[in-house]
Amino acid sequence: MNQQEIIQKTANYVKSKLEGEGSGHDWWHILRVWNNAKHVGVAEGANMFIVEIAALLHDLEDWKFQDNDDMPLVNEWLTSNKISDEDKNHIITIIKTLSFKGVANEKTMETLDGKVVRDADRLDAIGAVGIARVFTYGGSKSRPIYNPNNKIEPNMTKEQYMHKSRNANEDGSINHFYEKLLLLKDLMLTKTGKELAEGRHKYMEEYLKQFFDEWEGKA
Ligand code: NI
Hints:
With 219 residues, this protein is mainly alpha-helical.
């Protein structure tokens, strides 16, 4: 099998695993991250095989859903498709270093390929798609869209952040813009990622302004 065929086969596999997942980490999230990764990766001159495979597999074993650092599914998939040990280790390292657990807990992404995948994933958390995802995820945890009585906590520890993400709570989804989404623009690691994030960030700022104007009955 050539690399293009392995990428397509991996896409089919991930699609079969994540189709119908309802919390915002469904197959369509993966497809968008894959598209972002191709845009950013080609512009940045990354190794597109590594980038595309890591983008496709990055949420197969998500920390929010299971505490499993061994990533048995990813491991097994890469081994059964005869990916070299070097590529396999690189892909697994990228996926493990990827996720956001609060601004205070950023892990360093060492390689260009990893930076591309992280930027691609984060781009999908902001902009018009990001707005839709915040409320979809909040809804899955029975959160109100906005609760003015709850304070915003941008500097949570990893434990606080994970606890908050996993559990139903009284925080409105709007808090999540201030605790994560509006912070992502400055955490982008590639030039292309930063450029794309700028536009999406502006769009969210305009959205929030309109949201609060409407909340107050001003608009
Ligand atoms: Ni993701």
